[in-house]
Design goal:
Elements lengths: L15 E8 L7 H17 L4 E3 L21 H9 L7 H12 L3 E10 L2 E9 L5 E6 L21 E4 L2 E7 L6 H8 L5 E6 L14 H15 L2 E6 L4 H7 L3 H6 L8 E3 L16 E8 L3 H7 L39 H8 L1
Parallel strand pairs: 1-2, 2-3, 7-8, 8-9
Antiparallel strand pairs: 1-11, 3-4, 4-5, 6-7, 9-10
Helix pairs in contact: 1-3
Length: 347
């Protein structure tokens, strides 16, 4: 959609941002290799003037495709390797990424398998251009067999954050197919949304639900329904990954190479940049202007003038729920001799 906008001096601030969406093969099951490739891509984007870059779901250390290819028992050696190569956010490897965000003056939204002691979470780490953490959010509910490996987030992970580039939010994969998730995010007046996807390479001959067409439609709908810009970042599967994971002919039929389908959508749901081929690594880069959201919101704001709170309301618990609540020590009552007082009253 093309707009012609004449603005008088001082009437409206132009908020143009150069954004990038990653489409690439991860350094599969290689933590340091993943960190190195992440920093290399951030540096490449910085050379092109990018201010915000979006990475795919579980970019570090790659999506655990083995979960869909074999039984939980057979997958235990893979689970062990996956834990070892997942990213701890207080680690030296995490510091390298944060330092790169600062060095290249870049806002980064990084998809990762977050290792928190004995548990893993499908997470998105939002870092500002000073290398400071804006937020770490966790996928609210892992999808299907992902639940055998990953824990769950809570309502505190469905948040939109004020940044120097605008109000940024993020969701992973099929979180975009949960209508209440979407509405909770829209209600916070999101301007730029990061949609993280793994790769559309699995069960391609069996169901459309896991394919690029259906899931890109979810990202496109999010843009049009929420009237925001959407950076839908998608990874790829390489032949090397197939050789590692697919040890028989049946598995080779289940997982295919390629599967890249990154997109950048405007607030009217339109493509802002020509997509890459599904087997092509690279960056999708677009210049966006947040003021264009005004046109979409004028038509239909689902949390404003186009809503009907007298008919529908969403109950949204945003509180983090810790496993342990530490209470203050109980104060023992002071021993008071009340005998004297009672004798006085009895006189």
């Amino acid at each position: 959609m093309q707009y012609c906008l004449v603005i008088e001096k001082g009437s409206l601030m132009k908020t143009s941002i150069k954004v990038a969406c990653v489409q690439a093969v991860p350094a599969f099951l290689d933590l340091q290799g993943s960190v190195d490739k992440t920093i290399k891509i951030i540096a490449e984007a910085a050379e092109k003037g990018v201010e915000l870059i979006a990475f795919p779901e579980t970019w570090i250390p790659g999506y655990p495709w083995f979960l869909w290819l074999d039984s939980p028992a057979a997958n235990m050696p893979w689970v062990y390797q996956y834990h070892l190569n997942s990213l701890e956010l207080n680690s030296e490897q995490a510091k390298q990424i944060a330092d790169a965000a600062k060095k290249y003056n870049m806002h980064v939204v990084l998809g990762l398998s977050e290792r928190d002691h004995g548990s893993l979470y499908i997470s998105q780490w939002i870092i500002d251009h000073h290398g400071e953490t804006i937020a770490v959010r966790r996928k609210l509910k892992a999808t299907h067999v992902e639940r055998t490996l990953f824990g769950e987030g809570d309502g505190s992970s469905l948040q939109v954050y004020d940044t120097a580039l605008g109000r940024i939010g993020a969701l992973c994969c099929w979180e975009h197919l949960q209508p209440l998730n979407r509405y909770a995010m829209y209600s916070q007046h999101e301007q730029i949304h990061i949609a993280a996807w793994p790769s559309f390479s699995l069960y391609t001959d069996m169901t459309a639900a896991l394919g690029a067409e259906v899931n890109n439609a979810a990202s496109r709908l999010y843009a049009a329904e929420g009237q925001c810009f959407v950076l839908a970042s998608c990874a790829m599967v390489s032949q090397e990954m197939i050789d590692i994971l697919c040890t028989d002919e049946t598995k080779k039929q289940l997982l295919k190479t390629g599967g890249g389908a990154s997109r950048i959508y405007g607030p009217d749901g339109g493509d802002l940049v020509k997509p890459l081929a599904e087997d092509e690594e690279g960056l999708l880069i677009a210049d966006i202007d947040l003021n264009h959201i005004i046109f979409a919101k004028n038509a239909a704001d689902p949390v404003g003038h186009y809503s009907r709170p007298d008919v529908f309301q969403l109950v949204f618990n945003t509180q983090h729920k810790p496993n342990v609540i530490y209470s203050a020590p109980t104060v023992e009552p002071t021993n008071i001799d009340v005998t004297a007082e009672l004798e006085v009253e009895g006189e």
